[in-house]
Structure formats: C-alpha cells, structure tokens
Amino acid sequence: MNAALCGIFLKCQYSGVKNFPPGKTALKQTMNETSPIIKIEHFHKAFSLNGEKITVLDDINLEIEQGDIFGIIGESGAGKSTLVRCMNYLEKPTSGRIIVDGQDLSRLTEGQLREARRGICMIFQQFNLLMQRTAEKNILFPLEIAGVGKQEAKARAKELLELVGLSDKADNYPSQLSGGQKQRVAIARALAVNPKVILCDEATSALDPATTRSILALLKDINRRLGITIVVVTHEMSVIEEICQHVAIIDKSKIVEVGKVQEIFAHPKTAAAQRLVYPDAKMRERFIGKRCCRIVFDGSSSYAPTVASMILECKAPVNIMFADMKDIDGVAFGELVLQLPEDKALASKVVGYFRTHNLFVEEWGDDAE
Amino acid sequence: MMLNSSTGIMIAKGLLETLYMTVSSTSAAYLIGLPLGIILVVTAEGGILPRPALNKILNIVVNLTRSVPFLILLIAVLPITRFITGTTIGSTATIVPLIIAAAPFVARLVESSIKEVDKGIIEAGLSMGATPFEIITKVMIPEAKPSLIVGGAIATTTILGYSAMAGIVGGGGLGDIAIRYGYYRYQNDIMIATVVLLIVVVQVFQDIGMKISLKQDKRR
C-alpha cells in the first residue's frame, strides 16, 4: 500500500493533475496553518416530532485543525451523525454557525454550497455507491459533477483506484465487491475532487475487524500524505484509538469532553468518557475496600515490564484483579487494579514503587478515606 | 364465417392496429408520465426540491384521472378526441383517451420506481455537490433503471388491455374485432383467435421487459 501511494504521488506531481496536493506541501500547510478548518459555534439542532420539540444537539462548540484526524464518539442516538451531517450542510442547524475552510455555510447560496461541498467529501457506513455503475464509473461521478474533462477524469480515476489498491476491480460493479472493497471505492470517490476534509460517518461500522483496520490504515495514510483533515464519527472507541489525534465525546446532546486522544484515554474526566474508555468501569466498585489500588498507564512506561519488576524489587505478592490495557500508537494506555499485600508497610512500598516510576496510583484501601 | 384468408387478414390488421395504439400511446404516456412521476418524488416532503403545495395539487390531479374507469373516460373525452384528431373512430382517435388514462398511471409507476432508490445514494450525490437536476439524471434514473423498465412492461401491457376496450366505441384493433365478431355475432373462433393473440402479445411485451430489466440490473 505504501509503495503504491508513493508511486501515485510521484506520478501526480509530474502528470499535472490539477490541485492535487502533493504530500510535502500539504504537510507544510498543516504545520503552518493555525486557524481551524472546521469551526462550529453555538450550534443547536432540534427536530420537531408530532409537535414535540426534541433537541438533538445543544450548544456545540468545536474547532478542528487542518490536517487533524478528529474523532467524534458517543453512544448511538447521541447526535453524532447529525453533527457530522451539519458539517456539509446535509442537515441544517436550527441555530449557530458552521464555518468550514473560512466559509460560513449558512451564508452561502445553494450554488455556493454545492461548490463548497466539493471540498468536504463524505464516506458512509453503507458505502452508498451507485449500484448501477462500475467501480471506475463511481469514481468518475464526482468528476462529472465538477465538470472535469473525460480524459483527465479517466486518468484520475485510474490513479485513485491504484491508490486504494483496486486497479483490477475497475470494471466490477459494487455488488461484486466485498464490504472493504466497496469502502475503498467510496474513499477513492471521495478523494476524486481533492477535498480538504473527509467526513466519515460510521465508515467502518459495517466491516469486520480486520477490514476495519485496513480501511483505517488507508485513511491514516491519506491523512498523512495528502494532509486531508478527517473527521471520524463512530461509536467504537477502538476506531478512535487506532487513528484519531483528537476526540470529542458527545453525551446527551452535548460535547462533554474534548481533547487529545492520549489525554482522554489516560484521564477520562466525565462519566461518559469513563464509560467509553473503560466499558467495564462498574467493576471497580467491587474492589473498593478490598486493599486494592488502581494504576493508570498513560504511555510513559509502555514496554517496561513494570509489574514484574515491582514484584521482583518489593518481593510483594500482588493479585491482579482487573486489567484493561490498550495499545495506542505503540504506547500502552489503560488501567490495572491490584490487590495489595495485607502488610501495610509492604503495601505502601508497592504503591511507592509505582509512584516513583511516574505512574498514577489511586488507593482504594479500607482506611484510605 | 369460418377462419379463412380474409378473416386472417382482418385479424392481422387488428393486431397491427393494436400494436400501433399500444406503442404510440405508451410512448406518449411516458413523455408526460416520466417527468410527472419524477416531479412527484422530488417535490414531496423530504424530497430534494420540496414543494408541498405543488406536490399536493399534482397528487390530486393524478388520483382524479386514475379513479375514472377507462371506459367512461373514453367516452367522456370524446370532444377532446374530436378536437385533436378530427374524428372519434379508429385507432388514432383511441390514442387520445389512452394517453390521458395512461400518463398518470405511468407517473405512479415511475414514482414508485424512483422512490426505491436508496436515500443514502442520493445523499452521497448531494454531499458531492450535485445539482437537483444531476441527482435526477445521474442518480435517480440510472439507479432506478431496472425497476423503470419493469414498470414500462407493466404499463405497456395495461395500455394494451385498455386499447381492447376501445373496441366498444369502434376504436379498431383486436379488441374491436373480438367485440364485433366474437361478442355481437357469437363467432367463437374469432373471439378465441383474438384472445390468444392478445395473450401472446402481452407475454412477449412482459418477457422482453423482464429480460432487459434483468440484464440492466447490476445489483445482484
């Protein structure tokens, strides 16, 4: 895949495909650019159902930097799909402003909005490919709409098929492709008109875990090489872990927490965030008052065998009650619940050991309070 | 009169008239019904160009025309037929009421075919900045093509059936022959011959429609 990508980029730089951002320039832009590419201000969305007003999203404020992979996570029905659909105005906000690439979408005419939408592409859970068109013709579709010449469009479609690794499937209809292949076609189609932003609405939710990983890897590659901002809406924390740099957590129509993925993973502040990061969090209540302590791994000591070293050094027999570790970008995140030895001195030695190794330790012993 | 060469010629002529009426009025009905059906879909609430008032009026008009039985419509529009064709007898005259009856029927068939198109695909088109016209021509119609073709076969065979009714007012075609010889003169052989021919024609139209539709359908 990477080799294929490199090939494409070299080709693009020399074949004079219009506006195609070659990797380097895009990366530079990302670093210099400080103003957010997507800015949402006091966004409010309500539906009216049988005369009853239902608030879907309430006072949402969000800034997404150019070149970021930004995750939006929440339980189903939290309003995250509505939020992402407002970013290209498929849904119109009840009030508030949505500014994408410096343009306030609410101030655009229908024609200007269509023009703007070409810079904000979307991929969907159900792929939404044109079923009566081949893979290649699906990619040609946005180019036809953008009025790109036939020859140029065909060349572009060929490059994009290569980029997503489906050169041999150009003449296949979507019904002849697997879910992962369909999503690759959808990604190629989204990339056709050189968008600045790709919105992914549960793009991997209909795929199996292995395919999900390969699609996420492709998106990550696209982000890195083309500098395209990607907004990922999902209900799966694993997707956020895998590719996102920043994340916003939506709960009950509001954004309850937003920040770097690593920080939120290490120290989820709100209940909603804790629920998403540690779905088994309720188990912890069981450990309170049973000489247990919780150790948080936030990436600082990833590959060191910390627990084993502690046992060797303190000569303390500990009991692992619960563990939930995740590997994010090669570093370990998660929490570990240990039952400490009955000997108080030994127990505090254990806690001390972890603290000196820069780990956050929370004691739940019966005399802790 | 037994089945002989002159009745053979008469039946052959009737068959040609029937085909002429069916094909020309179906084509004309589609010229009106296809755009009408599409307008019904796109102007509906939640459509890509919502125009509730227009949608309501069109729906009423379509329902009104659809609810008049063809036989009555055939007679009711005689003045219009005379105005347009200069006569009320013969195949060409029958085409006028056929179109009036078939166009709203075709519109409903088209409407249901277009409605079948996955909303997500239309949304994808919109998200790429397609105009409503592009959504109609590049998404709705191509995606609904197999279903539209099946609808076409249904419309053709239904109109064929209508055209046989035109025999009552001397409209020509196989239906006319069946009524005049088979019904009024109790000539069962001619009745059977025309009915068999009508069945064969319906089968052929239906078969052709299904085959083309199946070939065009890339969803399976």
Percentage of helical residues of chain B? Answer: over 70%
In terms of per-residue confidence, which ranges of chain B show pLDDT below 50 for 5 or more consecutive residues? none
CATH architecture of chain B: Orthogonal Bundle
- Provide the structure class of chain A: alpha/beta
One letter per element, helices H and strands E, the order of chain B comes to HHHHHHHHH
Characterize the largest beta sheet of chain B: strand count, sense, and whether it forms a barrel.
none
List unreliable stretches of 5+ residues of chain A.
Answer: 1-33
The radius of gyration over CA of chain A amounts to: 24 Å
* Spatial gap, N to C terminus of chain A: 55 Å
Compute the number of helices of chain B.
9
Q: Output the CATH homologous superfamily of chain B.
A: MetI-like
Question: Which percent range describes the beta-strand content of chain B?
Answer: under 5%
Strand order of the main beta sheet of chain A, please?
6-7-8-3-9-10
According to DSSP, the number of beta strands of chain A is 14
Describe, in plain words, how this protein is organized in 3D.
The complex is a heterodimer of chains A (369) and B (220). Chain A is of the alpha/beta class and 369 residues long. In chain A, 38% of the residues lie in helices and 27% in strands. In chain A, a hairpin with a 2-residue loop joins strand 4 (95-100) and strand 5 (103-104). In chain A, helix 7 (179-191) packs parallel to helix 8. Chain A is elongated and about 80 Å long. The termini of chain A are far apart. By secondary structure, chain B is an all-alpha fold. Helix content of chain B is 81%, strand content 0%. In chain B, 45% of the residues are buried. Chain B is elongated, with a radius of gyration of 20 Å. The interface between A and B is medium-sized, with 28 and 23 residues.
